[in-house]
Amino acid sequence: MSYEQLALSGAKAYREKPDALLLAIESSCDETAASVLRGSREILSMAVHTQIPLHQKYGGVVPELASRSHVERVGGVVQKALDDAGATLDDINAVAVTYGPGLVGALLVGVSYAKGLAYAKGLPLIGVNHIAGHIAANYLTYPDLEPPFVCLVASGGHSHIVQVRDYDDFVLLGRTRDDAAGEAFDKVARVLGLPYPGGPNLEKLALTGDAAAYALHAPFNDSPSPDFSFSGLKTAVINLMHNAEQKGEPIRPADMAASFQHAVIKTLTNKSLRASLEAGASTLALAGGVSANMALRTSLAQAAEAAGMRFCCPDFRFCTDNAAMIACAGHYALMAGAPSPLSLNAVPNLALCAYGGHGEAG
Ligand code: KG4
Ligand code: ZN
Description:
alpha/beta, 11 helices, 10 strands, binds 5'-O-[(R)-(carboxyoxy)(hydroxy)phosphoryl]adenosine
């Protein structure tokens, strides 16, 4: 039997086996991760090797170093995921892998490894969109959660408000016009002299600051447009710091961090609440690395509650990049459609869906 025939019959068998095991690999940025999923939502293992110490001295991810580290680690991380799940490759029924968006060299490591495994074992392969993975982190946290709902995806590379019409049917309601939310956190953190990754460190610093200390405002974010913009806020922080420096006034980093965080959270909350109401959603979910931010979780939870909506956000272990979320999204993709061909390639700017809002590609 050819590989294509094996993959098709394997996919059919997978759909008919409620306790099938799926192995997922994630290598889109600075985490090498693998996970084994049973059925649709039962995580048997989550293995991860983080590259944070590797990139820390450069203040951000160095793509070439990231790719090399993935190459060195992927085999061990996959083996750990299998061991922790008490499984061997012979027990696995399907292989899922992130194929975009992300760093091309980093993505290629996971994609090549997953293709090799699928081919060697005659297993169906399924390519997963990383953003769909972040959204699926909510399914792992709430066993009863099903589409439709609206999800704010705020990560280091993307900030989207997505209408999740079905497990594999997305409509982009709004998005950032420039910097992603996590990117803005990271850039401002850098200006404040905080180590990479900036987001969590800025949140920590903001805890001791006064959010009303600095008047930070992005006028675009007051507009009724479902899109938002963060690069102006970042520039405003830089300008305030330069002005203070020129006048010889001291800068209060904790107050700056708190004021910046407050402005970002206000925008994300207002825009996603408005989009959810306009879409007639009864559930608002949060996903992506920035979903680990406690102040954002609290702000969205309060806004959703006041509007009579359910609010969902991922368990902390599923917030930043991991392979469990890729496994879950891969499961639903395999249930709904054909497996990916062995010609599957890394797509660094892979879109989740076409942009419904303003006619541009997402
Ligand atoms: O989703 P993710 O792990 O990777 C991408 O797909 O981009 O998101 C990483 C981003 C980084 O920008 C990081 O600074 C941000 O999420 N982040 C946070 C927090 N934890 C992670 N931003 C604000 N507050 C946090 N607690
Ligand atoms: Zn991510």
